[in-house]
Design a protein that fits this description.
With about 260 residues, this protein is α/β, with parallel strands linked by helices. The chain has helices spanning about 15-25, 35-50, 65-80, 100-130, 155-175, 200-210, 220-230, and strands spanning about 5-10, 30-35, 55-60, 85, 135-140, 180-185, 240-245. The protein has one domain (about 5-250): NAD(P)-binding Rossmann-like Domain (Rossmann fold, 3-Layer(aba) Sandwich). A 7-stranded parallel beta sheet has the order 3-2-1-4-5-6-7, with helices on both faces.
């Protein structure tokens, strides 16, 4: 039985959904936060079936300070202050940099980076006030460390680079409180977001088979297992770290000689 309340942003689909359901299967109290209220409600219902002690669905726009604060108030009242938080909500918009609309750039940064800050701030406030430790995990990306050969990734890469720097800094600041802050780095994972830009799923899978050392796309449940480990006491001596879950892609040189 998981002793903590687990809160997940972007819980309505993809990796966030997989993490919430994995926590539910361990008997956790869970909070599904998503800008899509219907998706959050659906996964919260599935969480109860999967074994969650309690579950709540909350609409949350992570780019809005008031929305995030209200969401955490709702979570605390419904299922208790979260001791494990996965700041996962994110979007991706691709375009050549010289043609990138400023509004799209700002929206990517607002969701992917400001959203992580606002989510973590609310979680950390409650953990510090409670005087107990906890665990926060943020979603970074290989784009924070290496360029994407497909190009057009500048806004997403910048936002995720910011997340990785944020994680390292926050981990040092909150280690004295017994609060751990880490990042998961998912590679190409078989979710709706992977093809949201209109990419051909079959082409992506074929490319994965030749470019990713393990020869396939990742599954959301595989990334969820990594996140759950970071959220749990099993990783009690890990903070300020990045757990790469990418099928070996970042370990591979671009050169074949």
């Amino acid at each position: 039985m998981w002793a903590e309340t687990v809160a997940v942003t972007g819980a309505g689909s993809g990796i966030g959904r997989a993490v919430l359901l994995a926590a539910a299967a361990r008997g956790a109290r869970v909070a599904a936060l998503d800008v899509n209220e219907a998706a959050a409600a659906s996964v919260a219902e599935q969480a109860l079936t999967a074994g969650a002690a309690r579950a709540v669905a909350v609409r949350c726009d992570v780019a809005s300070e008031s929305s995030v604060a209200a969401a955490f108030d709702t979570v605390s009242a419904a299922v208790g202050d979260p001791g494990a938080v996965y700041a996962n909500a994110g979007i991706e918009v691709n375009a050549a940099l010289h043609e990138f609309p400023a509004g799209d750039w700002e929206r990517v940064v607002a969701v992917n980076l400001v959203g992580v800050f606002l989510t973590c701030r609310e979680a950390l406030r409650r953990l510090v006030d409670a005087g107990r430790g906890g665990s926060v995990v943020c979603t970074s990306s290989p784009a924070a460390f290496v360029g994407h050969s497909g190009g057009g990734n500048s806004a997403y890469a910048a936002s995720k680079g910011g997340v990785s720097a944020f994680v390292r800094s926050a981990a040092l600041d909150y280690a004295p409180y017994g609060i751990r802050v880490n990042a998961v780095v998912p590679g190409a994972t078989d979710t709706a977001m992977l093809t949201a830009g209109g990419a051909d799923p079959d082409r992506l899978r074929a490319a994965a088979a030749t470019q990713i050392p393990l020869g396939r796309l990742g599954r959301p449940d595989e990334v969820a297992a990594a996140v759950l480990w970071l959220l749990s006491g099993e990783s009690s001596y890990v903070t300020g770290s990045h757990l790469v879950c990418d099928g070996g892609l970042m370990a591979k040189s671009a050169n074949d000689f």
